[in-house]
Every structure is written in structure tokens, then in C-alpha cells.
């Protein structure tokens, strides 16, 4: 319902004269603000890296302290246990090792990062989350990995916790949301990156062992009590007593038996390489059946890691070619242990009173993982070029270093484990949220977070989206249907639709194919400066002629990705079978289905966005203007349960331009103070001369209308404040 203001003709003229003076004052204020912001930006650009954290290698005790803190601060995202507590494994070492544990020996800590509110343990969605594993170190003196994945975990936890705020309209919640966003921005994490990190937490399960070889890391020794953990896995070994001798290997084995990982990283050092299969003597001179997908992902790790003056981007290729072959390596075991049983031997070690033989007899599902080797640095414990937190998610940052780039590699593994589509703009309204953590599942929750309203005379709606979690976008489509026409369908945000019966294809504007940000050629179609990183696609749908005000239209975006991964390589490979990994088949083979230990992996060809609801409003064309642009699209914000006019951003300013603090010198401050004082005196004169006019005007307004002059708290926005001139809405 649109209400208008009523005044007498004479009062209108007087108010118009006053409005002109107010406009002049606003212009002066805006000029002063622009001057301040410009000074802030110059100061920001010339500040040293003192504003950023310089990375250093963490000790075992520092890691333990940080883990304990996260367990307390992030209970909805972070669970921690140990191999000793969960699986009853012994602890390697003596009373002199890892004394901060208050137990004999060193415990092997296991961390799970997951949105436990959206995906409670034991739930349908939790059982189907795509899973990633990070191993900080199998060799205790190769020390870049543990610190790198700890920093990666820290970014994920901070971003997810922040993006979940505010959960209510309370001032404390809104203040906390502003504060955490500002803190992340000070670390170089902009709005798009914060949302990306939060999405990774809320749509994946990440399991990590910061110090897989806990005793070796504490002692700064390669082996665990004299035994090499990366020769301790039952693939291509010749003696049953030569595997599962170490607690480190048993820890990994126990974890893998409980999960269906698709991607994993194991961090080492001694060279600078991304390595994948094969790395066993049986397969010298041969590629793996999954080589096309492995090359694609290996190149992405190399590209996103980047380099600097003394260290080029990682070389990538097979371990047999770039490193050396080994028997009992973790990588080949994790990749082929379930489908190449001829090279798997049940283990019968004698250490630690033995280990059950049946725990190294595997089903057909568990071990089909791209468990890539990351040789982080030539120096196993580098002291220089570790990097800092300045723009750490940008591969071209001047703060790049050994830790910086491996933070990005860990996050990229979480990104690539599953394709997704993110709708970010409807008409000229950029949506406030992507995936909000800590929301319960269900259609009603989904509608609140993905609903917009358009003007009654709207004839078509433009949609913009990006596709992630993949390297090549083979095709993308836009689908729509009136909600009344598909009544009874399950439209839960956390489940893909089984078919598109009842939906109609929309029109794609421009490209229908593309490449990801992490490809060698970068994102295509290329995003604009204020758009998310990734290929940007646009389409439009017509508003069906039968649509009435308050009718709803449901929109899905679909994408088909990485279809070249379904092929084996064109040159010598072995065994002579098709691709065997979960990661390749889950996006190319709709008949792929595996389950183990209560976890599921299902293949599909088409991946879908969360449903977007478009409501036809009862206002004619627009509700007002923002920054000189007509506002004809409203957003329903899940955090506030109210209609949000342009709060998501009509042609928004980039988040990285917002500054809440800037240094000023004394001269500049005095000059600014003088201008403000003069402005205040000028305003006082105007108010004195026009005060009676204001009350006269109010007195002449239509007495029959009830006007509410109280303005409630504006919903939280992480963009620059902008004026939105609106006619009052009920």
C-alpha cells in the first residue's frame, strides 16, 4: 500500500525552498566525506604490512592451545577429538614428549569443521556432505603444512561465524556483525571472500589432522620413532609386517574408514611440487585412469598457489615423474585401495601390540580419493618467505609465501569437492546473502532467505549467477515455474530437484559455457569489479501473463560441469579401466552410487542452485530511488524477516571500499574541524529562520492520515550506507 504526503500549495513552495537549502548542505557534507575517504584510502595504501599478520611456523603446543580455543569459541562449527580418545589407539612417545597433553606421549588430534546446526550429526544432509581431508604432516620435520591448514581453518571459522550474524534484530547482534566484518576486512577478506568461506563451511565437511605424525612434529624428526609413516600404508608393499606400524598411519586409516572423502591433501617438503598418481613402482611409466581430472585439479592448485621472486608456481605431475616412487605411500593407497585389490595387502604389524588385520581389508567405496601430495618448499623448515595475511586469498598478493599459498591450496580443495551455483543478482538488486550458516533446513527457511518481490507491471526478470566447485562449465540453464503449477514438489534448499517436470527454460543472455577462476585462463565470462569472483552468467524469464499480484515464481539455475573428466587419458595408462575416483564420477556419471559407514556419494550430471522465489508485488512500477536509480525490486531478508528495499544493493559499491578507520594528521583534523564548525553555524541560521514554517506545514497536513515519524533500526548491511528515497510502505 503506497501512501503520499499532502500539503497546501503555499507550504509546498516554502518547503521546496528549504529543500534546496538542505540539498546544498548535503552537497557540502558529501564533499567533506569524499575528501576524508580519499585521504583514508591514500593513507591505507601507504601503510606498511604492520597491519597484517606475518606468518611463522607454529609449535605443537601453540597448535594445541589454538585448537582448545576454537573448541570453546566455535562449538557449532568445530569438533575435536583424538585418535586415542576416538579409536583407542596408543600414543607414540614417552613422558618427555608433548608434556602439554598431561598424558604419556603425543596425541594425534582430529578436527572436523562442519555446520552442525544446518547439518546435525546423523541427519540426511550430514550423511551426504562432500568430504575433504587435510593432513598437516606425515613427516615431522616438514613443517609448512600444519601451520598452513591451521590458518586455513581459522579463516573458515571466523568467516562462517561472522556470516551467521546477525541472527536477531538486537543491537548487540548487529554490532557484533559489523565488528567481525570489519575485522575480516582489515585482514584483507572482502565481502565476496567472506561469503565464499562461509559457504565452504556450511556445505562441506572438512576433516583435518594438523600434526598427523604428532610425535615426529614435536621432536622435529621425519619418522615416528624411527619408522617412516609414508611407507606404512598397505599399497604395493611386499610384507604384511611392513604396514600400519605407526600411530600416524593408523590414525589416517581409522579416519578414512569412517568417511567417503573425495579430495585430500597431504603436505610434505623438500621440493616444490603438486604430485598425483601414480607414485608406486608397479606403475612406472603409466598414467592413472583419472589423469585428465588430476591434471585439471593439479593445475588449479599450481595456479591459485602462485609464486614470488624466489619461488615459482608449483610444478605439477605424477609422483613417479616429479618425485620418486615408493611402496606403502599414502597417496596411491587412498586413490586405489578400494578398486585395485591386487596391490593391497592386509597388514599384520608387531608394533604397539599389533593392529587388527581386518581394518586393512577395504570395501569397494572407501579408497577412491584424489589424495594429492603437496611438496611445499625446498627447505623442509623454511625461515624466509613464509608470507603474511595481506590479501591472503589473492594469488597475486605481495604477501605471498610458503604458508600463504598453502592456505589457499587447502581452501581450494574444499572449493573443488562439489559443484554449486550461486545466484547473486536479480534485476539490479544484488542479494544480501549467499549461504547463511546455522540455519535449519526446510522449505520455509529456504523461502525466507531467497525471496524477492518485483513491481506489478514487471514483464521480465533478469538473473545473474556464478558457477563454482568446478573447472569447466559445459552448460548452464535457467528454469522457472509458477509455484501453483508445481504444488507438492519438495523445494528444500539442501536437496537437488530430481527432475524439472513443470518447469520452463528461461533465456540465457550471452555465454552458456565458461571456465572457473582457478583455471589457467581465469574466469570466463569475466566478472565485473563489483561481482563475485567466478564466471558470470545472465538470463531472464518472462512473467507469465496469468500471474496475479502476490503470486510466486520459483527459479532454478542448473549447470553441467567437467564432463571431460569421464574419459581416461589418451596415452599409456593403467589399469585399463575408466576413471575410478569419486570426484570424477560424481559429476559425470548419474549411475554412480557408493555408501560406507553411513556416508553417501551419488553421481549426477546437472547441479542446481537453491530455489529463488520471485513474488509479483502490488506496487505499479517502483517504490523509489537509490543513488539515482529506480528501485523496483525488494528483497526479503532472512535475518530480519522484513522486506528489504535495495538493502542488498542496487548498483552497490564494492565492500572493499568501505573504511571504518583511517589515520589523519593534526593539520588535516584542525582544517576539517573548522569546516564542520562553519557548517554548524550556517545550519543554525537556517533552522532559526525556518522553524515556524516546519510546524505550519505539519499543521496543514491531512488530519485523516496517521503518519509514523519514527524510524526503526535499519537492517544490517555490509555495504556503504546509501540514501533510499521511498514512499511510505505498510
Keywords:
single chain; alpha+beta; 8-stranded mixed beta sheet; 27 strands; 18% strand; disordered N terminus
Characterization of the model:
This protein is of the alpha+beta class and 730 residues long. 29% of the residues lie in helices and 18% in strands. Strands 11, 13, 14, 16, 18, 21, 22, 25 and 26 form a 9-stranded mixed sheet that branches. Helix 4 packs across helix 6, helix 4 packs across helix 12 and helix 9 crosses helix 12. The longest helix has 38 residues, at 9-46. Residues 1-16, 31-49, 640-669 and 688-730 have low confidence and may be disordered.
How large a portion of the residues is in β-strands, by DSSP E?
15-25%
User: Which spans have pLDDT < 50 for at least 5 consecutive residues?
Assistant: 1-16, 31-49, 640-669, 688-730
Morphology = globular
Class computed from helices, strands and strand pairing: alpha+beta
**End-to-end separation:** 6 Å
- Helix % is 25-40%
Largest β sheet strand count, sense and barrel closure: 9 strands, mixed
Gyration radius, in Å: 29 Å
Q: Count of DSSP E strands?
A: 27
Mean pLDDT: 85
User: What oligomeric state do the depicted chains represent?
Assistant: single chain
DSSP helix count? 15
Amino acid at each position: 500500500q503506497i501512501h503520499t504526503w499532502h500539503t497546501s500549495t503555499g507550504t509546498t513552495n516554502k518547503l521546496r525552498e528549504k529543500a534546496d537549502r538542505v540539498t546544498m548542505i548535503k552537497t557540502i557534507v558529501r564533499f567533506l566525506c569524499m575528501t576524508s575517504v580519499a585521504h583514508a584510502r591514500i593513507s591505507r595504501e601507504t601503510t606498511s604490512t604492520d597491519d597484517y599478520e606475518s606468518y611463522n611456523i607454529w609449535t605443537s603446543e601453540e597448535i594445541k592451545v589454538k585448537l582448545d580455543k576454537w573448541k570453546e569459541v566455535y562449538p557449532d562449527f568445530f569438533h575435536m577429538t583424538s585418535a586415542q580418545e576416538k579409536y583407542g589407539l596408543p600414543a607414540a612417545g614417552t613422558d618427555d614428549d608433548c608434556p602439554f597433553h598431561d598424558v604419556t606421549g603425543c596425541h594425534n588430534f582430529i578436527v572436523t569443521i562442519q555446520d552442525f546446526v544446518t547439518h546435525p550429526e546423523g541427519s540426511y544432509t550430514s550423511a551426504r556432505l562432500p568430504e575433504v581431508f587435510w593432513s598437516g604432516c606425515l613427516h615431522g620435520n616438514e613443517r609448512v603444512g600444519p601451520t598452513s591448514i591451521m590458518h586455513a581453518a581459522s579463516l573458515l571459522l571466523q568467516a562462517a561465524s561472522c556470516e551467521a550474524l546477525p541472527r536477531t534484530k538486537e543491537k548487540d547482534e548487529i554490532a557484533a556483525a559489523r565488528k567481525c566484518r570489519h575485522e575480516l576486512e582489515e585482514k584483507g577478506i572482502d565481502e565476496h571472500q567472506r561469503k565464499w568461506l562461509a559457504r565452504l563451511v556450511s556445505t562441506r565437511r572438512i576433516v583435518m589432522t594438523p600434526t598427523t605424525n604428532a610425535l615426529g612434529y614435536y621432536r622435529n624428526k621425519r619418522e615416528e620413532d624411527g619408522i617412516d609413516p609414508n611407507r606404512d600404508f598397505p599399497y604395493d608393499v611386499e610384507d604384511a609386517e611392513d604396514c600400519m606400524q605407526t600411530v600416524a598411519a593408523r590414525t589416517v586409516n581409522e579416519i578414512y574408514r569412517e568417511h567417503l572423502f573425495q579430495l585430500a591433501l597431504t603436505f610434505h617438503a623438500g621440493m616444490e611440487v603438486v604430485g598425483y598418481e601414480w607414485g608406486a613402482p608397479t606403475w612406472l611409466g603409466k598414467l592413472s585412469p583419472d589423469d585428465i581430472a588430476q591434471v585439471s585439479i593439479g593445475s588449479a592448485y599450481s595456479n591459485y598457489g602462485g609464486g614470488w621472486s624466489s619461488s615459482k608456481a608449483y610444478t605439477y605431475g605424477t609422483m613417479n615423474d616429479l618425485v620418486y616412487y615408493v611402496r606403502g605411500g599414502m597417496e596411491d593407497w587412498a586413490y586405489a585401495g578400494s578398486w585395485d585389490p591386487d596391490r593391497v595387502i592386509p597388514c599384520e604389524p608387531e608394533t604397539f601390540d599389533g593392529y587388527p588385520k581386518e581394518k586393512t581389508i577395504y570395501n569397494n567405496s572407501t579408497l577412491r580419493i584424489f589424495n594429492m601430495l603437496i611438496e611445499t618448499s625446498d627447505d623442509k623448515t623454511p625461515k624466509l618467505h613464509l608470507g603474511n595475511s595481506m590479501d591472503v586469498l589473492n594469488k597475486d598478493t605481495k604477501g605471498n609465501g610458503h604458508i600463504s599459498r598453502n592456505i589457499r591450496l587447502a581452501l581450494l580443495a574444499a572449493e573443488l569437492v562439489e559443484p554449486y551455483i550461486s545466484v547473486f543478482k536479480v534485476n539490479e538488486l544484488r542479494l544480501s546473502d549467499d549461504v547463511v550458516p546455522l540455519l535449519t533446513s526446510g522449505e520455509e527457511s529456504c523461502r525466507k532467505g531467497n525471496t524477492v518481490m518485483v513491481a506489478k507491471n514487471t514483464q521480465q526478470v533478469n538473473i545473474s549467477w556464478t558457477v563454482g566447485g568446478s573447472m569447466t562449465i559445459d552448460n548452464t540453464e535457467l528454469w522457472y515455474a509458477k509455484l501453483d503449477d508445481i504444488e507438492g514438489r519438495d523445494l528444500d534448499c539442501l536437496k537437488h530437484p530430481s527432475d524439472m517436470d513443470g518447469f520452463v527454460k528461461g533465456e540465457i543472455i550471452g555465454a552458456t559455457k565458461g571456465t572457473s577462476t582457478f583455471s589457467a585462463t581465469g574466469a570466463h565470462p569475466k566478472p565485473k569489479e563489483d561481482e563475485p569472483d567466478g564466471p558470470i552468467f545472465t538470463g531472464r524469464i518472462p512473467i507469465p501473463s496469468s500471474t496475479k499480484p502476490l503470486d510466486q515464481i520459483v527459479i532454478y539455475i542448473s549447470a553441467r560441469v567437467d564432463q571431460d573428466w569421464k574419459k581416461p587419458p589418451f596415452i599409456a595408462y593403467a589399469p585399463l579401466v575408466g576413471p575410478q575416483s569419486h570426484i570424477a564420477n560424481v559429476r559425470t556419471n548419474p549411475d554412480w552410487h557408493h555408501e560406507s559407514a553411513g556416508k553417501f556419494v551419488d553421481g549426477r550430471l546437472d547441479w542446481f542452485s537453491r530455489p529463488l522465489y520471485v513474488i509479483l508485488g502490488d506496487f505499479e512500477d517502483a517504490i523509489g530511488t537509490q543513488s539515482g536509480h529506480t528501485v523496483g525490486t525488494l528483497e526479503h531478508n532472512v535475518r530480519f524477516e522484513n522486506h528489504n528495499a535495495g538493502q542488498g544493493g542496487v548498483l552497490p559499491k564494492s565492500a572493499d571500499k568501505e573504511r571504518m578507520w583511517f589515520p589523519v594528521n593534526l593539520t588535516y583534523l584542525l582544517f576539517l574541524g573548522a569546516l564542520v564548525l562553519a557548517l554548524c553555524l550556517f545550519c543554525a541560521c537556517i533552522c532559526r529562520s525556518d522553524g515556524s514554517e516546519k510546524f505550519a506545514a505539519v499543521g496543514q497536513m491531512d488530519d485523516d492520515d496517521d503518519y509514523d515519524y519514527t524510524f526503526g533500526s535499519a537492517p544490517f548491511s555490509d555495504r556503504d550506507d546509501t540514501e533510499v528515497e521511498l514512499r511510505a510502505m505498510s
